[in-house]
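Today's session is about reading a structure prediction critically. Students often jump straight to the picture, but the first step is always the sequence itself: look for stretches that repeat, for charged clusters, for runs of hydrophobic residues. Only then move on to the predicted structure, which in these notes is written as discrete structure tokens rather than atom positions. Here is the chain we will use throughout the hour.
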Amino acid sequence: MLCNKCNKEEALIHIRGVDAQGNVHTISICASCAIKALMSEELNASEIAGLMKSGAMPKPDVMMKIIDSLMRQTGLESERLEDVDGACTNCGLQRVELRRELLLGCPECLDCFDSDIRSHLGLKDDFVYNETEVPESEQESTGDDAKSGQVAFHALNTRLQAAVQAEEYELAATLKDELESRLREINRLRQSGSNCDWGARKIKDHFALPDRAQNNLPWLPKRPDGQGLIRLASLLFGNYNLSGFELPPFRNKPAQSNDISALLAAFLRREPIFGQSREYVPAEMEKTARLELTERGWCPHEFIARKHATRLFVSENERVIALLNDIDHLRINLWGAAEELPLMLRHLQDFTDNLRGTFDLQSHPKFGRISRHLNSLGSGMGLGQLMHLPALTYDGRIEALVRACRDMGFNLRGLFRQNEKTGAALYILQSKDSLLPPGQYLERFLELSRSMARHEQLCRQMFQSHKENRLILTDNIGRAVGTLKGASLLSFEEAEYLLSALWLGVEMGMLPWLDIRKVLAKITELLTLPANIADKQNSFADRIQIRRNLAISFKKDLLGMEEE
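Below is the predicted structure for this chain, in token form.
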């Protein structure tokens, strides 16, 4: 039955009454109209009390719907009032959207929402980003010929952007061909003496199983360091946007995503930092193949679903990943060992110099390099380290560690979903924002991660040296082995937790029969498995079979147990 007032929504409240002439009347209203009646005082307090006494108030489940409707309307009204003077004059981004997503709509948002951005980043009113110049002794000279070529490239790039904006597509096509020719020459001159080859360096994975078709994930450790597998890997990233182009997702000029993809792809194909790179275009790939890109840790799931043109580059050793037209025009990630961060930073700075020597990059006089994400404003760069901290987790010290890191200006968070039995005790320590160039806090960051590793080692020693503590450790690892032995079904979350416990057991010498290489290989298999079965999870029976197969596989590969 429809509401008698608005004739749009389903009626939830039915009130019957008698008028002065003795005629019986029934009114049926929806939750929204009921709220309006109460708030506009069409029903006063005595009438409400009368309804309650007569039992005419809605049933509990109906009242919950009314309350839910009230909450939604209150939230919408709050957002509407807040947005009256809270929209970017250029792109129309609402203030509530910025606060919720932390993503800019266009460069002009920086001026429209200046106070909001400063408040989020904790900046004073007089803050101006200042990028410290890299000493000349640390810069790679590209030679006069290369610099001359870069100047010519800038001029061509400006003409191309003007042609595209004027919709002179024939001229734009000609200029694009000439740009690519210039780019090849710039790269030829630059590569002769460049050491920016992070993605081309041969890396031996000491933990790889022989005859294994799939490499271990790039963030898993590649060699022992004598300190235990605690500081697993370093991540360094940079975000860049080209001047003269709209920011993703290119709402007003979707064709620009193709232009940027083509320009940057031509540049990246010849960048020495990649070596012989692999190139992927998600829009041209099958669903399962696209999902494999995310499960390998190369890109977020949202990236493969973008409506505009995107592209992914992977270096030959999988330690350099570039995403074109994700949140920004270009995002580049570098992976390496824990103590390789200083060297990685030099390679990223060389890459940035090469990029700036070829393209004009968007920047703001107060906030520095422009990135859509507020936390990447400034240098556009950030860093992190992945850590395995099971002993500190078992001892309940993680929350205190999170607070200590925050006090020092860094963030510590779980790598996976937050749940009592998930997360595999894997955490990422990362920079809070990009307001400082990484070189200004790199040593402080490294010392913090070293200190955390020492605390993890001390905690492990404590578990071994005291009988009661050793019982706690033995219980956790023993339960993991026992659970795996008796498991008929295994979820992904349970598998993550069990692998972390087994990993610690191997490092503590409690599971001498288990090879750490098998544990790391199983982590890779576990995290890439969803891509291979994504199309087979449509029914309850399928999901049960997946969990069944996972249990069988884990028992066979880790415990040597064949299914009867």
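Discussion point for the tutorial: The longest strand covers residues 231-240.
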